[in-house]
Design a protein that fits this description.
Blueprint (H helix, E strand, L loop, with lengths): L14 H11 L3 E5 L9 H9 L4 E6 L4 H10 L3 E4 L3 H18 L4
Parallel strand pairs: 1-2, 2-3
Helix pairs in contact: 1-2
Length: 107
Amino acid sequence: MLAAWSETVVLVGDEPSLLESSGRLQPELVVVDLSVPLGGDLRWVRRLRLRCPGAKVVVLSQDDDADVRSAVKSAGVDGFVPKGMLADGLVAILSDLQADWVDNPPS
């Protein structure tokens, strides 16, 4: 699904791999599953932003409760998609972000 939105799709299995590959590739979009081992908190968002300041960050989560949504939003994530709505939700978020890129292209 993501290959239709980008020339390069990289899958990683942990926070160090996420940060290393993102820093090296400088992606416009980073989609992260909260079930990936990320140190148990959302500090990875700040570390990712330091390496890729222009990247849009979308989080996928099995948990779709208000506390998770609030924590993700407070961390500075650009989009949240519950896994139960993955197909429709991810396409909608990517479409919104793509429209924003047309008006405000990444630097």
